[in-house]
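Lab notebook, bench 4. The sequencing result for the construct came back, and we need a structural model before the next group meeting so we can plan mutations. Quick request posted to the team channel:

Model the 3D structure of this chain.
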Amino acid sequence: MFMKTNHKKRLEELILIIVMAGILVAVFCYQNLSAISYQMYTSDSITYEKGKVDQIIEEDLQLEEGETNRYRGEQTLLVTLKTGEQKGLQIVIHNELTATHNIKATEGTNIIVKSDTPEGIEPHYSVFNYDRSMGIYCIIGIFAVLMILVGGLKGLKSLIGLLFTLLFILLFLLPMIYQGYSPIGMAILTVLVTTVFSMLLLNGFQAKTWTAIVSVMGGVLIAAIAYYLFSNVLHLTGYNLEQAEELIIIHQNTGLQVSQLLFVGILIASLGATMDMSMSITSSLYEMKRIHPQLTGKQIFVSGMKIGSDMIGTMCETLILAFVGSAVTALLVLISYGTQLQQLLSSDYIAIELLHSITGSVAVILVVPITAILTALFTTKLNWKQRSKQQS
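Done. Here's the predicted structure in token form:
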């Protein structure tokens, strides 16, 4: 019996992964057919290629005052291009190290070369940055290995779910918003699709999974309501974002709905915490019901509220501190400007960060009673059905 159940579960997971892959392929094909027609800045003559420093022909560097490993000055580099149409070509690049562009090369350093080759004019090459691609791949690989080593099969399924979510955002959400579709509608659809498939893959076609999915969507609804209320109180829309000028130019060419963009960022940022909270409470309550089937709906609800109250503090702190951490450099700059308290509190930056933090936290807080109520209702109904079958 156990072998049959296990085989059925593995078959369901395989079918689910195939469906997820099919969705991504379909979305990718659709986006290729309706390719983005507008780009703000285009230059067919500019490419970014990988290169390797073969030799430091000449350099004049001085150590920055107060620094131990940061230099200013100039370098002349002999570089071999490793990618692109000019792969294998050796070129000489003048590399200037300044306060903001500080790429110090040594023999063997892998760099990204900005290649500007307009027709009829001598090409110009410059050092864009270090080639970080291999480092990024290694870091992602370490993360994936740790997930699988510690989480086992669950860790692998979590990785697949995360990959699906990221690809769906990149292939569906962003292009659809860019082309003028409703950011709010597209964001909610993205959350629905990614939540359903990620949770089903991770936890299977169980009652607790569907309970958690409904709870997460309830949390999304709460986030939408909280965003609407708070953004009106603070007089904030997507037009208050830092990149508003660029977004307005895109809007004039593609119909991008700038005013709704703020909500998209808030919803995506708080989704992970909402899913975590909902699934943790649901799993705990269903396990309690399995061990103690005599528990009433009221007892399940009270237990859910107690479990949730223990998690609320750390979850909200995680959300708020994540935004505070990302704001540290901006706050330091504001302090250096001698920003007054009234000016600081009324700035777009602080208001947007506050809206991000509080809206996500409100969704996490209120998903607790939503999850507790739904689990109490579903477990009670499930228990009633089981008793009816036994009596018949």
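The CA atoms of residues 3 and 44 lie 59 Å apart.
Will bring this to the meeting.
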